[in-house]
């Protein structure tokens, strides 16, 4: 049950919507490799650390961090880590909900047969008609936030967790069907080549043509984005996994759970990439076309495959479900804190935090229409881009590193050894080495370089 709930949090828009479009924007294969290395060397060890802290603290992240710090005679300021997580969750959900709203809108477009026989231009127009309209986006964003608050308020969580049990495998099977379709597009090889061939030169070098000569410079950006995405896709660094860890029974294996969650999460992302890029190349689309990528490619497949209307509807329903289970975990740290520390009822806590998230989300709604012009951009980024960059690439890795430092340096060796109960001493030593040295160093080196501090 714990694995299912945590996998429900991990598998979401990050895998099916975000992974393909950032892979497309960052040149493909080498980016995918960096992402996989980050999952293995940073994501899995930090997930183990975060679950462990949650299970020891057994409270909402803010109180868990404060209690654990107090128990070890450390500064209560560690509670701030919980606060940063609450803030990150609220900010992420504010745009996550807008994108989930797109998926919700597409359930009805697919169901009504609007994709049937469409070409690339038709699909592009359909997408443009949705994101160009602030009213439509606001309406779908509101519906999705309402759905999220409903579950969080009632704690129907149980029901939803049971649903995850069969919806998740269904999503997996449907992704396989999509990959099967992609095999017949005639560009499957090209898609796989894009995803899995290393072209380090292109990825690491940001090239510019100045006065007719091409000047290339080493760029840390793609590495920062790959690393940030490892945190985002595994729901790490903001307390979501800590909350689930607090429900985990003492005897369950933290390492096994972490590895299973990472495997499930990564497979869904890779399948999404294998389904989407062949369609991109077969239709002469642009891999780096941004956040609309899946909404401009998959409808082409549904519009031309047998039973496409049915599969299309089912796909977007499952995508909404996947986003829903992630959204709940994004807001849970905030709600849990309001209930524990402020004495709010769950209903009141959900409404208060949900309304704040909804309001911030309006900035993202406008990023795709009213505020998409250059005069509304900061560092060339829209409100949505800025929020995504700040949360996924800065706040989550920072939160993750603090969790790693806490678990690796401040908690006693005996305590973590006892919690993790790894089958082999060498495994424990490896974990401890990764969280003590590799994770903090890697995150700081990548972050400071990419932000231009070095
Ligand atoms: N992991 C989720 C996804 O990939 C997003 C998420 C991030 C959820 C952080 C909770 C915490 O869609």
Describe this entry's structure for a reader.
By secondary structure, this protein is mostly helical. The chain is 77% helix and 3% strand. It has a single domain (2-205, 213-450), classed as Hydantoin permease (Orthogonal Bundle). It has 19 helices and 2 strands. Strand 1 (205-210) and strand 2 form a beta hairpin. Helix 2 (13-25) crosses helix 13, helix 15 packs across helix 16 and helix 17 (383-410) runs antiparallel to helix 19 (425-450). It is globular, with a radius of gyration of 21 Å. The termini are far apart. The protein binds phenylalanine (PHE). Residues 9-10, 12-15, 92, 232-233, 235, 238, 240, 326, 329-330 line the site of phenylalanine.
Low-confidence stretches: none
CATH architecture: Orthogonal Bundle
Total strand count, please? 2
CATH class category label: Mainly Alpha
Structural class from helices and strands? mainly alpha
Largest sheet: 2 strands, antiparallel
How many domain modules? 1
Output mean pLDDT: 93
CATH-defined fold name: Hydantoin permease
Please tell me how large the radius of gyration is.
Answer: 21 Å
Please give a quick description of this structure:
Helix 3 crosses helix 19. By secondary structure, the chain is mostly helical.
Please supply descriptive tags for the structure shown above.
454 residues, 3% strand, 2 strands, Hydantoin permease, 19 helices, two-stranded antiparallel sheet, mainly alpha
Blueprint of the fold:
Layout: H1 2-10, H2 13-25, H3 29-57, H4 61-71, H5 79-111, H6 120-131, H7 134-154, H8 157-183, H9 188-196, H10 200-204, E1 205-210, E2 213-218, H11 221-233, H12 240-245, H13 254-282, H14 293-304, H15 308-342, H16 346-367, H17 383-410, H18 413-420, H19 425-450
Antiparallel strand pairs: 1-2
Helix pairs in contact: 1-13, 1-15, 2-11, 2-13, 3-4, 3-9, 3-11, 3-13, 3-17, 3-19, 4-5, 5-7, 5-15, 5-16, 5-17, 6-14, 7-15, 7-16, 8-13, 8-15, 9-13, 11-17, 11-19, 13-14, 14-15, 15-16, 17-19
The structure holds phenylalanine.
């Amino acid at each position: 049950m714990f694995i299912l709930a945590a996998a429900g949090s991990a598998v979401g828009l990050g895998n099916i919507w975000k992974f393909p479009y950032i892979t497309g924007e960052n040149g493909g294969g080498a980016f995918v490799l960096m992402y996989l290395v980050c999952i293995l060397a940073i994501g899995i060890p930090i997930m183990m650390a975060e679950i462990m802290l949650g299970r020891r603290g057994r409270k909402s992240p803010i109180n868990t961090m404060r209690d654990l710090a107090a128990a070890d005679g450390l500064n209560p300021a560690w509670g701030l880590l919980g606060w940063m997580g609450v803030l990150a969750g609220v900010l992420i959900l504010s745009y996550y909900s807008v994108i989930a709203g797109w998926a919700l809108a597409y359930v009805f477009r697919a169901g009504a047969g609007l994709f049937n026989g469409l070409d690339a231009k038709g699909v592009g127009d359909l997408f443009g008609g949705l994101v160009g309209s602030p009213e439509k986006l606001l309406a779908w964003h509101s519906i999705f936030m309402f759905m999220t608050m409903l579950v969080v308020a009632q704690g129907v969580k149980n029901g939803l967790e049971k649903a995850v049990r069969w919806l998740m495998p269904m999503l997996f099977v449907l992704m396989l069907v999509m990959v099967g379709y992609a095999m017949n597009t005639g560009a499957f090889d090209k898609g796989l080549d894009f995803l899995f061939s290393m072209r380090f030169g292109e990825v690491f070098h940001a090239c510019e043509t100045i006065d007719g000569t091409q000047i290339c410079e080493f760029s840390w950006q793609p590495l920062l984005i790959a690393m940030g995405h490892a945190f985002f896709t595994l729901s790490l660094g903001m307390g979501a996994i800590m909350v689930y860890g607090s429900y985990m029974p003492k005897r369950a294996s933290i390492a096994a759970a972490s590895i299973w969650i990472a495997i499930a999460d990564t497979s869904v992302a890779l399948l999404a990439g294998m389904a989407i890029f062949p369609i991109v190349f077969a239709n002469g689309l642009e891999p780096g076309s941004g956040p609309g990528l899946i909404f401009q490619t998959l409808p082409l497949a549904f519009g031309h495959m047998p039973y496409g209307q049915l599969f299309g509807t089912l796909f977007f329903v499952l995508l909404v479900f996947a986003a829903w289970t992630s959204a709940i975990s994004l807001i849970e740290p905030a709600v849990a804190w309001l209930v524990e520390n402020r004495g709010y009822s769950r209903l009141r806590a959900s409404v208060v935090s949900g309304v704040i998230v909804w309001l911030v989300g309006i900035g993202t709604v406008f990023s795709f229409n009213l505020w998409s012009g250059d005069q509304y951009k900061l560092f060339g980024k829209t409100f949505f881009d800025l929020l995504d960059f700040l949360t996924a690439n800065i706040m989550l890795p920072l939160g993750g590193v603090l969790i790693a430092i806490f678990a690796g340096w401040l908690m006693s060796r005996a305590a973590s050894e006892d919690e993790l109960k790894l089958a082999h001493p060498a495994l424990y030593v490896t974990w401890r080495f990764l969280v003590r040295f590799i994770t903090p160093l890697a995150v700081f080196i990548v972050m400071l370089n990419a932000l231009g501090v070095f």
